[in-house]
Amino acid sequence: MKKNVLALSIAAMIGGFAGSANALTAATATAFEQNDGGAGHILVVPYFTTQNNNMSVIHVVNTDTQNGKAVKVRFRGAANSDDILDFTVFLSPYDVWTGSVQADANGSYFMTADNSCTYPDIRKAKTSFVQDRLSDNWSAEKRVNNTKEGYVEILNMADVKPGSKLFTTIKHSSGAPKCDEAVLADTLSINPETPALADALGYETPTGGLTGDWYILNVNQTTTFSGAATAIKAVDAAGANARGNFVAFPQDNHSPTVGNTDAYTADPLFISTAKDKAGVAQSKLIQIANYDLPDLSTPYLTSNVGAPASQASSLTAAVANNGVSNQFANDPLIDAKTDWVLSMPLRRYSVGANYAADAKANAYMVFNPDVLNPATGKPFFAAGPTTVDADGNICVDTASNTFYDREELSKTDGAVISPGTAKKIRLCGEVNVLAFKDAGTSVLGASVARQTATVAYDNGWGKVNYGSASYPVVGSSFIKLMNSGGAANGFSGTYGITWPHRFSK
User: Fold this and answer.
1) Which of the four pLDDT bands, split at 50, 70 and 90, describes residue 504?
2) How much is the pTM?
């Protein structure tokens, strides 16, 4: 992408050029790598749910023992990655922040009893998920349901320098920080093109060091599933942990004061260079607000300043794989059930849903033509094979799937996907749940983007291949089983197993 004068001025700020007055420390990150089992600058929780009486809980740990962290937390819906809640969390060194997602008649809501500062202050309050970005054409029931499943983006926007007023107010003392409203309100004046102000507020370029974990708890069914968040680390040319660009924005609903916002996001619904399925230009279909930024496409690497499509391409490539494999169990003797979660948290930067258009129209799917696979120069999600299902969820087909039993028998394309008779798994929605055999509530009770795979075997393993495509799929196999002897003797008889997908690149 061609860099203009605006991009160069941005570089002067978020790159922190040496020698400039009040400059932030220069960014050094040149690449992303998926750091499974480790810390990162970006965390993705592949799935949350409040369906079927489930509660989802997330934990974020700041392993940096020196610096505070300004962290963007954003919940996105399972259908088409719509923003349904976002806020800022300030972590002090050594800090652990926790929160839960539950549901009532109005949909999902977030609660945290944690003392760490949030902005706005949502601590110990019931914060309902927001439906503004969901389709006006959906029924009230469908809008509520679309707050109940999705994934979570967690991004280290900036570090907070020891000794600054911001650091002092977010630093825990006797177990709790001050969270001075006047100090936190100053962050609403931040403009990522003004380094002196960022420096004066106590900000610094982000160094990562975040780890995350999640669990899904169903009290009524005495079942728990858990796992680690997918960690993505920004590294330098030597592969060492590095500083990213400063990407903090105000947590308010005002229009960004940074000139052309095309320099800060690749989201096709926000930019002026998007195209629909027929190649017709679609410009800024949604009015962007400060709270929409940063997203995962806001330039974080030194090479991507002013070029968010390059950022989205680099990040998607870091997570993308050629296929996933995992185990399943549906043994009737232990009442076993299995759901696979196939989550694509970076697809939004390639294609989004324009709810103002009919789902059958070309204008419904809006693409960023500049988000390309660096290895092939082709789109991760090309307009031709990308389709829409009856629920308005954007879909791509896989190339093949093979399922094996536990005794070496196999069947290629052996799962009939219902409803219908398709034998190739179709990834519909941003977070697709594949239920094995069970057409009912199955394990997770998913309903936003769910399909049933009728496999030939009760137990075994399977693999899903994308052919020549490469998709940013993460997730796990969720297996639930029953110990009938436990239930018969008056104690819990249900158990949950979570195995992350294995993948090939």
Assistant:
1) confident
2) 0.94
